Amino acid sequence: MKISPNPSWFYNEFRQVGTDFTDPTVVATYDRNQHSSTVEAEQALVEQLGITAGNTVIDLGCGTGTFAIQAALTGARVHAVDVSQPMLAYARQKAAAAGLSDRIQFHHQGFLSYNHNATPADFIVTQAALHHLPDFWKMVALLRIAAMLRPDGVFYLWDTVFSFPPSEFQAHIQTWMARAAKPMGGGWTVTDFETHVRDEYTTFGWILERMLEETGFVIETVERASSVITAYTCRKKCSS
Ligand SMILES: C[S@@+](CC[C@H](N)C(=O)[O-])C[C@H]1O[C@@H](n2cnc3c(N)ncnc32)[C@H](O)[C@@H]1O
């Protein structure tokens, strides 16, 4: 889907919201803090999705590139996309160290600006990134993702997603922070979680699931890790 030229009301996705992923300190400590994105976890995801040599894979909001690197190790062609230049620079270095510079193309673009000028993707993955967009713009991003995938292609979405009863929001947010926050230097702190809840755009599962269906996906599996984290494996409807 192309919306061109971008109208003046279009969302500026390069402006950081919440955690500043252009801050070199945040980038340098990211792999230590983000326990969901270890090499082992990303390798397991590559296997779970069935990514193999010759596939075209897009990683939207690739961060430090751990998933992109594991996908590229299969022999897949990978497009790693992020709005943060420092994140991309860090991911490029990791890819070079793994001898994969020629297998991963890095793009300084985002959900709302990446133009996929290559073979339609077999797999699109986005982890811990879509919640940076407000809901209306998530919907635009999902339409664009559907347009980049081949018919029957797979879209994997892992993110903070609220799946508690709305009236219980305070207890679930507080339990999440008490369980997940680490002391300074050991991972994401209470302050980081507070920033996430206050300034970023995590939404409810029932909103996100309806958005996925309305934008051309069939949800095949839903893995709720907790009342604040969900992974969806979706397939693009053949007709969209
Ligand atoms: C929490 S990190 C997740 C990185 C990686 N996917 C992972 O699972 O570890 C979020 C990433 O999304 C990027 N991001 C934020 N808004 C974005 C957008 N509109 N389009 C693409 N990437 C975006 C940030 O720059 C950051 O690198």
UniProtKB/TrEMBL annotation:
GO biological process: methylation
GO terms of molecular function: methyltransferase activity
CDD domains registered for this protein in UniProt: AdoMet_MTases
Keywords: Methyltransferase, Transferase
Superkingdom per UniProt: Bacteria
Entry annotated with the keyword Membrane: no
Gene3D superfamilies linked to this entry: Vaccinia Virus protein VP39
Domain Methyltransferase: 57-153
PANTHER family recorded: TRANS-ACONITATE 2-METHYLTRANSFERASE, TRANS-ACONITATE 2-METHYLTRANSFERASE-RELATED
UniProt-recorded name of the protein: Class I SAM-dependent methyltransferase
Taxonomic lineage of the native organism: Bacteria, Bacillati, Cyanobacteriota, Cyanophyceae, Leptolyngbyales
